[in-house]
């Protein structure tokens, strides 16, 4: 979300003088825009990017509506970040869940680490509740919903790229899982590129047609439901072949990873994790390889 603020407000949030902010901006370490009248304006997501990349903390984050950063190493009683998040979601405390996820992000924790090592295990653990209690399934739905809202808030703190999407994707028809495909989308956005998440239960023909129109470099599929595997493999291969003719890569991942590809197709890549996917995108996007 590109919410713009004035130099005075941002220098107060960082706890530095306006001239320090101007120096950062002149050096190009903090990008700024200008109003029609020629005054500098800073986007909150750009300020967060600089803070995370260079380890420059916000001294007064609350002045621009951000929570305090949470350094995992300073957690009381040696608690792990995922334990805090687990307790917040179990207590159905959305504000606390958001404070923890955003706080860890603002402390500089890499996004893929936050998603893969904190959020995913918590959701997996909460998903076991239904065995223990008659309200477990409702609690699982509540936790999913709160997590999606939290990821939506996180998305608003990432830079919003304009123009053509680098990547477009979703989860195939019959697959209702919303969190994993949301995470793939956030991973692309965190790299500074636009992504379009078409969500769960996506007919694969319509993914192909959408890609024909939008021409991303990458399409992704996140697979959780165990559709009979040979059928899923056939569908994925046929999508890969169609995307191949359009020069688009197909990235697949999710719980069904390892079972998704039967024979090699040059544009079809199966990923074990978001970390691996992010590293792949980084390599793909380094200027000398474009
Ligand atoms: C929430 C949840 C639900 C919710 C989903 C809500 C929603 N709209 O999203 C609801 C209640 C609908 C549901 C329903 C069911 N569920 Co369910 N569910 C879960 C739960 C707890 C969390 C899923 C989730 O979002 N995980 C978080 C994501 C982020 O983790 P992830 O999928 O592992 O993804 C990671 C990587 O794989 C990777 N990744 C994922 N996709 C991609 C894509 C790309 C391109 C890349 C690079 C990487 C990548 O990134 C992620 C980050 O680490 C899981 C437990 C679990 N361990 O995951 C069970 C689980 C998946 N469900 C299960 C079951 C059995 C069911 C039901 C059959 C229950 C029932 N009897 O009705 C139904 C089936 C629904 C269906 N049609 O398939 C089982 C599946 C077992 C199996 N055979 O595989 C699980 C594993 C629970 C369990 N331990 O038994 N479920």
Can you give a write-up of this model?
The protein is of the alpha/beta class and 290 residues long. The chain folds into three domains: 4-64, Multidrug-efflux Transporter Regulator, Chain: A, Domain 2 (Orthogonal Bundle), CATH 1.10.1660; 72-157, Methyltransferase, Methionine Synthase (B12-binding Domains), Chain A, domain 1, CATH 1.10.1240; 167-289, Cobalamin-binding domain (Rossmann fold, 3-Layer(aba) Sandwich). 50% of the residues lie in helices and 10% in strands. The protein is built from twelve helices and eight strands. The protein has helices at residues 7-14, 18-27, 44-54, 81-90, 94-106, 111-126, 129-132, 136-157, 179-190, 204-214, 229-245, 274-285, and strands spanning 4-5, 33-34, 40-43, 167-170, 195-197, 218-222, 249-253, 268-270. Strands 5-4-6-7-8 form a five-stranded parallel sheet, with helices on both faces. It has a three-stranded antiparallel sheet with strand order 1-3-2. Strand 6 (218-222), helix 11 and strand 7 (249-253) form a beta-alpha-beta unit. Helix 5 packs parallel to helix 8 and helix 8 (136-157) runs parallel beside helix 9. The site of cobalamin has 30 residues, from helix 6, helix 8, helix 9, strand 6 and strand 7.
Please tag this protein with its features.
290 residues; alpha/beta; Multidrug-efflux Transporter Regulator, Chain: A, Domain 2; Methyltransferase, Methionine Synthase (B12-binding Domains), Chain A, domain 1; five-stranded parallel β-sheet; 10% strand; binds cobalamin
